[in-house]
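Example for tutorial group B:
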Protein backbone atom coordinates (compact mmCIF):
# COMPACT_ATOMS: atom_id res chain seq x y z
CA UNK A 1 0.00 0.00 0.00
CA UNK A 2 1.10 3.54 -0.58
CA UNK A 3 1.35 6.56 1.63
CA UNK A 4 2.89 4.86 4.67
CA UNK A 5 3.67 7.34 7.47
CA UNK A 6 7.18 8.16 8.58
CA UNK A 7 8.02 5.98 11.59
CA UNK A 8 10.49 6.07 14.45
CA UNK A 9 11.03 3.52 17.21
CA UNK A 10 12.33 4.03 20.72
CA UNK A 11 12.81 1.00 22.98
CA UNK A 12 12.79 2.11 26.61
CA UNK A 13 14.10 -0.39 29.12
CA UNK A 14 14.62 1.76 32.21
CA UNK A 15 13.83 5.18 33.57
CA UNK A 16 15.55 6.93 36.40
CA UNK A 17 13.00 9.65 37.02
CA UNK A 18 9.65 10.75 35.68
CA UNK A 19 8.97 14.49 35.54
CA UNK A 20 5.36 15.44 35.25
CA UNK A 21 5.84 19.22 35.08
CA UNK A 22 5.96 19.51 31.33
CA UNK A 23 6.44 22.61 29.22
CA UNK A 24 3.57 23.49 26.95
CA UNK A 25 3.79 21.81 23.58
CA UNK A 26 4.44 24.28 20.81
CA UNK A 27 1.86 24.43 18.06
CA UNK A 28 3.03 22.62 14.96
CA UNK A 29 2.35 23.22 11.30
CA UNK A 30 -1.11 22.26 10.16
CA UNK A 31 0.44 20.07 7.48
CA UNK A 32 1.88 17.48 9.87
CA UNK A 33 1.05 15.88 13.20
CA UNK A 34 3.15 13.67 15.49
CA UNK A 35 1.37 10.72 17.12
CA UNK A 36 3.00 8.48 19.73
CA UNK A 37 2.21 4.75 19.56
CA UNK A 38 2.95 2.85 22.78
CA UNK A 39 2.42 -0.93 22.54
CA UNK A 40 4.40 -3.97 23.70
CA UNK A 41 7.23 -4.64 21.26
CA UNK A 42 8.75 -7.14 23.70
CA UNK A 43 7.57 -9.38 26.53
CA UNK A 44 4.55 -11.66 26.90
CA UNK A 45 2.17 -9.26 25.12
CA UNK A 46 4.32 -8.68 22.04
CA UNK A 47 1.75 -10.35 19.75
CA UNK A 48 -0.94 -7.96 21.00
CA UNK A 49 1.39 -5.04 20.30
CA UNK A 50 1.94 -6.30 16.77
CA UNK A 51 -1.81 -6.50 16.15
CA UNK A 52 -2.33 -2.96 17.43
CA UNK A 53 0.48 -1.55 15.32
CA UNK A 54 -0.93 -3.24 12.24
CA UNK A 55 -4.43 -1.92 12.91
CA UNK A 56 -3.21 1.66 13.33
CA UNK A 57 -0.96 1.42 10.27
CA UNK A 58 -3.70 -0.04 8.10
CA UNK A 59 -5.98 2.92 8.74
CA UNK A 60 -3.15 5.30 7.85
CA UNK A 61 -2.30 3.36 4.70
CA UNK A 62 -5.95 3.49 3.63
CA UNK A 63 -5.89 7.27 4.10
CA UNK A 64 -2.58 7.99 2.35
CA UNK A 65 -0.65 8.44 5.59
CA UNK A 66 -2.92 11.26 6.77
CA UNK A 67 -5.32 11.99 9.60
CA UNK A 68 -7.66 14.94 9.25
CA UNK A 69 -5.88 15.79 6.01
CA UNK A 70 -2.52 16.15 7.77
CA UNK A 71 0.52 13.94 7.22
CA UNK A 72 1.27 11.80 10.25
CA UNK A 73 4.62 11.12 11.87
CA UNK A 74 4.15 7.97 13.99
CA UNK A 75 6.74 7.67 16.76
CA UNK A 76 6.75 4.25 18.41
CA UNK A 77 7.85 3.29 21.91
CA UNK A 78 7.95 -0.13 23.57
CA UNK A 79 5.50 -0.54 26.46
CA UNK A 80 7.28 -3.72 27.51
CA UNK A 81 5.72 -5.78 30.28
CA UNK A 82 6.37 -3.55 33.30
CA UNK A 83 4.51 -0.47 34.50
CA UNK A 84 7.80 1.41 34.90
CA UNK A 85 8.76 0.76 31.29
CA UNK A 86 5.33 1.62 29.91
CA UNK A 87 5.01 4.91 31.79
CA UNK A 88 8.56 5.83 30.75
CA UNK A 89 7.59 5.26 27.12
CA UNK A 90 4.56 7.55 27.38
CA UNK A 91 6.59 10.22 29.20
CA UNK A 92 9.40 10.12 26.65
CA UNK A 93 6.99 10.62 23.76
CA UNK A 94 5.29 13.57 25.46
CA UNK A 95 8.36 15.31 26.90
CA UNK A 96 11.10 14.64 24.37
CA UNK A 97 9.27 13.95 21.12
CA UNK A 98 6.48 16.46 21.76
CA UNK A 99 3.78 14.31 20.18
CA UNK A 100 0.31 15.79 19.88
CA UNK A 101 -1.42 12.61 21.13
CA UNK A 102 -0.53 9.15 22.45
CA UNK A 103 -2.25 5.93 21.35
CA UNK A 104 -1.92 2.39 22.72
CA UNK A 105 -1.19 0.84 26.16
CA UNK A 106 -2.19 -2.76 26.89
CA UNK A 107 -1.61 -3.06 30.64
CA UNK A 108 -4.33 -1.70 32.93
CA UNK A 109 -1.78 -0.83 35.60
CA UNK A 110 0.29 1.11 33.07
CA UNK A 111 -2.79 2.88 31.73
CA UNK A 112 -3.80 4.05 35.21
CA UNK A 113 -0.32 5.46 35.82
CA UNK A 114 -0.03 6.99 32.33
CA UNK A 115 -3.39 8.70 32.86
CA UNK A 116 -1.72 11.08 35.31
CA UNK A 117 1.11 11.82 32.88
CA UNK A 118 -1.38 12.66 30.12
CA UNK A 119 -3.55 14.83 32.36
CA UNK A 120 -0.60 16.76 33.83
CA UNK A 121 0.83 17.47 30.37
CA UNK A 122 -2.60 18.08 28.80
CA UNK A 123 -1.91 15.46 26.14
CA UNK A 124 -4.71 13.29 24.66
CA UNK A 125 -4.21 9.61 25.57
CA UNK A 126 -6.33 7.11 23.64
CA UNK A 127 -6.00 3.67 25.22
CA UNK A 128 -6.52 0.81 22.79
CA UNK A 129 -6.07 -2.12 25.17
CA UNK A 130 -6.41 -1.69 28.93
CA UNK A 131 -9.83 -2.51 30.37
CA UNK A 132 -9.41 -1.23 33.95
CA UNK A 133 -12.83 -0.17 35.24
CA UNK A 134 -11.60 3.12 36.69
CA UNK A 135 -9.46 4.30 33.77
CA UNK A 136 -11.78 6.49 31.67
CA UNK A 137 -13.91 8.76 33.84
CA UNK A 138 -14.63 11.74 31.63
CA UNK A 139 -11.22 13.38 32.15
CA UNK A 140 -10.52 15.87 29.36
CA UNK A 141 -7.40 14.10 28.08
CA UNK A 142 -8.25 10.40 28.57
CA UNK A 143 -10.17 8.24 26.07
CA UNK A 144 -10.57 4.52 25.38
CA UNK A 145 -11.43 2.50 22.25
CA UNK A 146 -11.30 -0.97 23.82
CA UNK A 147 -13.72 -2.15 26.53
CA UNK A 148 -14.37 -2.09 30.26
CA UNK A 149 -13.72 -5.22 32.30
CA UNK A 150 -17.02 -4.84 34.14
CA UNK A 151 -18.93 -4.79 30.85
CA UNK A 152 -17.33 -8.01 29.67
CA UNK A 153 -17.89 -9.89 32.91
CA UNK A 154 -21.35 -8.47 33.49
CA UNK A 155 -22.71 -9.26 30.04
CA UNK A 156 -21.43 -12.84 30.23
CA UNK A 157 -22.88 -13.33 33.72
CA UNK A 158 -26.36 -12.67 32.36
CA UNK A 159 -25.77 -14.93 29.34
CA UNK A 160 -24.50 -17.90 31.36
CA UNK A 161 -27.37 -17.65 33.83
CA UNK A 162 -29.73 -17.84 30.87
CA UNK A 163 -27.89 -20.64 29.04
CA UNK A 164 -27.62 -22.84 32.16
CA UNK A 165 -31.25 -22.28 33.17
CA UNK A 166 -30.18 -20.21 36.19
CA UNK A 167 -27.61 -22.83 37.08
CA UNK A 168 -24.15 -22.60 38.63
CA UNK A 169 -20.70 -21.51 37.46
CA UNK A 170 -17.22 -22.01 38.89
CA UNK A 171 -14.96 -18.96 38.57
CA UNK A 172 -11.24 -19.33 37.72
CA UNK A 173 -9.08 -16.27 37.08
CA UNK A 174 -5.69 -14.61 37.29
CA UNK A 175 -5.03 -13.11 40.73
CA UNK A 176 -4.53 -9.54 39.57
CA UNK A 177 -6.58 -6.39 39.10
CA UNK A 178 -8.02 -7.36 35.72
CA UNK A 179 -8.75 -10.92 36.83
CA UNK A 180 -10.74 -9.73 39.83
CA UNK A 181 -12.61 -7.00 37.93
CA UNK A 182 -13.62 -9.48 35.25
CA UNK A 183 -14.66 -12.04 37.88
CA UNK A 184 -16.42 -9.74 40.34
CA UNK A 185 -18.61 -8.20 37.63
CA UNK A 186 -19.43 -11.68 36.32
CA UNK A 187 -20.47 -13.01 39.73
CA UNK A 188 -22.65 -9.97 40.49
CA UNK A 189 -24.47 -10.32 37.16
CA UNK A 190 -24.75 -14.12 37.41
CA UNK A 191 -26.42 -13.95 40.81
CA UNK A 192 -28.59 -10.98 39.85
CA UNK A 193 -29.85 -13.05 36.89
CA UNK A 194 -30.88 -16.00 39.05
CA UNK A 195 -27.74 -18.12 38.78
CA UNK A 196 -25.20 -18.88 41.50
CA UNK A 197 -21.44 -19.24 41.97
CA UNK A 198 -20.27 -22.77 42.80
CA UNK A 199 -16.76 -21.72 43.80
CA UNK A 200 -13.77 -19.51 43.03
CA UNK A 201 -10.08 -20.14 42.43
CA UNK A 202 -7.35 -17.62 41.54
CA UNK A 203 -3.87 -18.31 40.20
CA UNK A 204 -0.70 -16.22 40.34
CA UNK A 205 -0.62 -13.60 37.59
CA UNK A 206 1.48 -14.68 34.62
CA UNK A 207 1.70 -18.31 35.70
CA UNK A 208 0.88 -21.13 33.30
CA UNK A 209 0.72 -23.69 36.09
CA UNK A 210 -1.04 -27.01 36.26
CA UNK A 211 -4.77 -26.46 36.89
CA UNK A 212 -5.63 -30.11 37.63
CA UNK A 213 -6.27 -29.43 41.32
CA UNK A 214 -8.70 -26.64 40.43
CA UNK A 215 -10.43 -28.83 37.84
CA UNK A 216 -10.97 -31.40 40.60
CA UNK A 217 -12.72 -28.69 42.63
CA UNK A 218 -14.91 -27.86 39.65
CA UNK A 219 -16.02 -31.48 39.37
CA UNK A 220 -16.67 -31.73 43.11
CA UNK A 221 -18.78 -28.55 42.98
CA UNK A 222 -21.06 -29.94 40.29
CA UNK A 223 -20.94 -26.61 38.45
CA UNK A 224 -22.86 -26.36 35.19
CA UNK A 225 -20.24 -24.07 33.63
CA UNK A 226 -16.74 -22.68 34.11
CA UNK A 227 -16.03 -18.96 33.81
CA UNK A 228 -12.32 -18.31 33.20
CA UNK A 229 -10.64 -14.90 32.91
CA UNK A 230 -7.23 -15.26 31.28
CA UNK A 231 -5.39 -13.80 28.30
CA UNK A 232 -2.28 -14.50 26.24
CA UNK A 233 -0.03 -17.35 27.33
CA UNK A 234 -2.15 -18.02 30.43
CA UNK A 235 -5.26 -18.40 28.28
CA UNK A 236 -3.56 -20.79 25.88
CA UNK A 237 -2.25 -23.01 28.68
CA UNK A 238 -5.56 -22.97 30.55
CA UNK A 239 -7.75 -23.91 27.58
CA UNK A 240 -5.37 -26.70 26.54
CA UNK A 241 -5.32 -28.17 30.05
CA UNK A 242 -9.11 -27.83 30.31
CA UNK A 243 -9.41 -29.84 27.08
CA UNK A 244 -6.92 -32.47 28.27
CA UNK A 245 -8.63 -32.83 31.66
CA UNK A 246 -11.80 -34.27 30.19
CA UNK A 247 -13.96 -31.52 31.68
CA UNK A 248 -14.71 -30.31 28.16
CA UNK A 249 -16.95 -33.35 27.66
CA UNK A 250 -19.35 -32.32 30.42
CA UNK A 251 -18.75 -28.74 31.61
CA UNK A 252 -18.88 -25.88 29.11
CA UNK A 253 -16.17 -23.21 29.29
CA UNK A 254 -16.95 -19.49 29.03
CA UNK A 255 -14.83 -16.38 29.44
CA UNK A 256 -14.00 -12.88 28.23
CA UNK A 257 -12.98 -12.96 24.56
CA UNK A 258 -9.25 -12.82 25.30
CA UNK A 259 -9.53 -16.51 26.26
CA UNK A 260 -9.60 -17.46 22.55
CA UNK A 261 -8.41 -14.32 20.75
CA UNK A 262 -5.67 -13.85 18.16
CA UNK A 263 -2.53 -15.95 18.57
CA UNK A 264 -4.20 -17.90 21.38
CA UNK A 265 -6.85 -19.31 19.02
CA UNK A 266 -4.31 -19.93 16.26
CA UNK A 267 -2.09 -21.91 18.64
CA UNK A 268 -4.94 -23.88 20.22
CA UNK A 269 -6.66 -24.79 16.96
CA UNK A 270 -9.24 -27.51 17.54
CA UNK A 271 -8.54 -27.56 21.29
CA UNK A 272 -10.54 -24.33 21.59
CA UNK A 273 -13.61 -25.69 19.76
CA UNK A 274 -16.80 -25.06 21.69
CA UNK A 275 -15.36 -22.44 24.06
CA UNK A 276 -17.82 -19.54 24.36
CA UNK A 277 -16.63 -16.00 24.92
CA UNK A 278 -17.94 -12.44 24.98
CA UNK A 279 -16.32 -9.57 23.10
CA UNK A 280 -17.21 -6.56 20.99
CA UNK A 281 -15.59 -7.92 17.82
CA UNK A 282 -14.91 -11.05 15.79
CA UNK A 283 -13.22 -11.28 12.42
CA UNK A 284 -16.17 -13.53 11.46
CA UNK A 285 -18.75 -10.75 11.96
CA UNK A 286 -21.09 -10.55 8.98
CA UNK A 287 -20.99 -6.98 7.69
CA UNK A 288 -19.74 -5.31 4.54
CA UNK A 289 -17.34 -3.08 6.46
CA UNK A 290 -15.84 -5.97 8.43
CA UNK A 291 -15.49 -8.13 5.31
CA UNK A 292 -13.59 -5.33 3.56
CA UNK A 293 -11.46 -4.73 6.67
CA UNK A 294 -10.54 -8.41 7.02
CA UNK A 295 -9.69 -8.59 3.30
CA UNK A 296 -7.45 -5.51 3.43
CA UNK A 297 -5.78 -6.65 6.65
CA UNK A 298 -5.00 -10.10 5.28
CA UNK A 299 -3.63 -8.59 2.07
CA UNK A 300 -1.37 -6.22 4.00
CA UNK A 301 -0.08 -8.58 6.68
CA UNK A 302 -0.96 -12.15 5.65
CA UNK A 303 -2.73 -12.46 8.99
CA UNK A 304 -6.25 -12.26 10.42
CA UNK A 305 -7.24 -9.15 12.39
CA UNK A 306 -8.08 -9.38 16.08
CA UNK A 307 -9.98 -7.19 18.50
CA UNK A 308 -6.63 -5.55 19.30
CA UNK A 309 -6.20 -4.61 15.63
CA UNK A 310 -9.68 -3.08 15.49
CA UNK A 311 -9.24 -1.08 18.68
CA UNK A 312 -6.11 0.59 17.28
CA UNK A 313 -7.75 1.02 13.86
CA UNK A 314 -10.63 2.82 15.56
CA UNK A 315 -8.26 5.05 17.54
CA UNK A 316 -6.87 6.23 14.21
CA UNK A 317 -10.43 6.79 12.96
CA UNK A 318 -11.28 8.88 16.04
CA UNK A 319 -8.13 10.96 15.61
CA UNK A 320 -8.93 11.38 11.92
CA UNK A 321 -12.28 12.96 12.78
CA UNK A 322 -10.85 14.99 15.67
CA UNK A 323 -8.06 16.46 13.56
CA UNK A 324 -10.52 17.25 10.81
CA UNK A 325 -12.47 19.29 13.37
CA UNK A 326 -9.33 21.04 14.68
CA UNK A 327 -8.25 24.37 13.20
CA UNK A 328 -4.83 24.03 14.76
CA UNK A 329 -2.63 21.06 15.68
CA UNK A 330 -2.12 21.30 19.40
CA UNK A 331 -2.88 18.94 22.24
CA UNK A 332 -5.72 20.89 23.84
CA UNK A 333 -7.63 21.43 20.61
CA UNK A 334 -7.31 17.76 19.63
CA UNK A 335 -8.61 16.74 23.07
CA UNK A 336 -11.54 19.14 22.75
CA UNK A 337 -12.32 17.84 19.25
CA UNK A 338 -12.36 14.22 20.43
CA UNK A 339 -15.49 15.14 22.35
CA UNK A 340 -17.26 16.02 19.11
CA UNK A 341 -16.33 13.13 16.80
CA UNK A 342 -19.75 11.50 17.08
CA UNK A 343 -20.24 8.06 15.53
CA UNK A 344 -17.18 5.99 14.65
CA UNK A 345 -17.87 3.71 11.67
CA UNK A 346 -16.02 0.52 12.55
CA UNK A 347 -15.58 -3.15 11.59
CA UNK A 348 -16.95 -3.97 15.06
CA UNK A 349 -20.16 -2.06 14.30
CA UNK A 350 -20.81 1.65 14.71
CA UNK A 351 -20.06 3.09 18.15
CA UNK A 352 -19.42 6.41 19.89
CA UNK A 353 -17.70 7.69 23.02
CA UNK A 354 -19.96 7.85 26.07
CA UNK A 355 -19.80 10.74 28.60
CA UNK A 356 -16.92 9.01 30.41
CA UNK A 357 -15.00 8.61 27.11
CA UNK A 358 -15.50 4.83 26.95
CA UNK A 359 -16.99 3.12 23.88
CA UNK A 360 -20.78 2.84 23.83
CA UNK A 361 -20.90 -0.46 21.93
CA UNK A 362 -22.48 -3.88 21.52
CA UNK A 363 -21.10 -7.10 23.02
CA UNK A 364 -21.47 -10.49 21.32
CA UNK A 365 -21.52 -14.09 22.47
CA UNK A 366 -19.06 -16.06 20.33
CA UNK A 367 -18.11 -19.71 20.01
CA UNK A 368 -14.77 -21.07 18.76
CA UNK A 369 -15.28 -23.34 15.76
CA UNK A 370 -13.17 -25.03 13.09
CA UNK A 371 -14.09 -23.51 9.72
CA UNK A 372 -12.73 -23.83 6.16
CA UNK A 373 -10.71 -20.68 6.98
CA UNK A 374 -9.30 -22.23 10.15
CA UNK A 375 -10.42 -21.78 13.78
CA UNK A 376 -12.62 -18.69 14.23
CA UNK A 377 -14.77 -17.09 16.90
CA UNK A 378 -18.20 -17.30 15.28
CA UNK A 379 -20.77 -14.79 16.55
CA UNK A 380 -23.90 -16.41 18.02
CA UNK A 381 -25.82 -13.32 19.09
CA UNK A 382 -25.64 -9.83 20.56
CA UNK A 383 -26.02 -10.12 24.35
CA UNK A 384 -25.50 -6.56 25.59
CA UNK A 385 -25.23 -2.96 24.51
CA UNK A 386 -23.62 -0.43 26.83
CA UNK A 387 -24.23 3.20 27.66
CA UNK A 388 -22.55 4.62 30.74
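The residue assignment follows.
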Amino acid sequence: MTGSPHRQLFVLATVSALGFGLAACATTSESKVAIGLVVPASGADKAIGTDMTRGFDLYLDQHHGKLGGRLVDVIEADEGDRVKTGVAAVTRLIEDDEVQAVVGVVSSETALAAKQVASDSETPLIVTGAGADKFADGSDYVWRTSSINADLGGSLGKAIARETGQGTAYVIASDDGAGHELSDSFMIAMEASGGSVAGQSYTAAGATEEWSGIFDKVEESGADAIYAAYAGQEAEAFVQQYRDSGLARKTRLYGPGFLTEGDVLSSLGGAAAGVRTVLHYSDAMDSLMNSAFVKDYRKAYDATPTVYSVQAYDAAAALDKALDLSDDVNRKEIADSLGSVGTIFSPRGNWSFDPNHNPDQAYYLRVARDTPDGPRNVVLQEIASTGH
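The chain is about 40% helix and 25% strand. Compare this with the pattern of hydrophobic and polar residues in the output above.
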